[in-house]
Amino acid sequence: MYGQDTARDVYRQALPVILVSLVAGLFAGTILGTETMRRGIGQVPGLLLLLPAFLATRGGVYGSLGARISTGLHQGLIEPDFALDRPLRNAVVASFVNGMTVSVFIAAVAFAVLRALGREGSLLDLVGIMVVAGFLSAVLMLSVLLTVILLGYRRGLDPDNVIGPIVTTLGDVFGVAFLLVGIRVVEVVL
Hints:
Structural class: mainly alpha
Number of helices: 6
Distance between the termini: 54 Å
């Protein structure tokens, strides 16, 4: 029964996810340290400024989604299947809209900070990169998050024990990778 987990149960469920998160976090750092990423950061003024905020909001927006789904599963309001019933659909749509809105907002704030510091930058480039990165990370994070939570729940895992490391890891890995994709898309399109 969920809610009756012993410390051992929590440890047993969370440890594998935390270990995978460690390896994936190192992978995200590796992407960030590539010559391509360093060149992209150098070419796009403000990108390094918005990077921490972008990664943090991936965890915040999709962590809230994970918590909402977990609570819905525990309360019987959401069924552990892949049918987008109303509560699940509403939570997913709200998270997607929040993720996209905050991505554009981060670009605007980064641009405003650049201007306040008397530095050059392109609002269009920053917004373009964030829209691409926000959209791609949203689609992938939503897909993976729903799959892991629903399948894990069906197999007896308490989502509350694993959702934190999953969300932060997905946000970091996909966030960094898709920022790089966003840089390339904006280079080609704009």
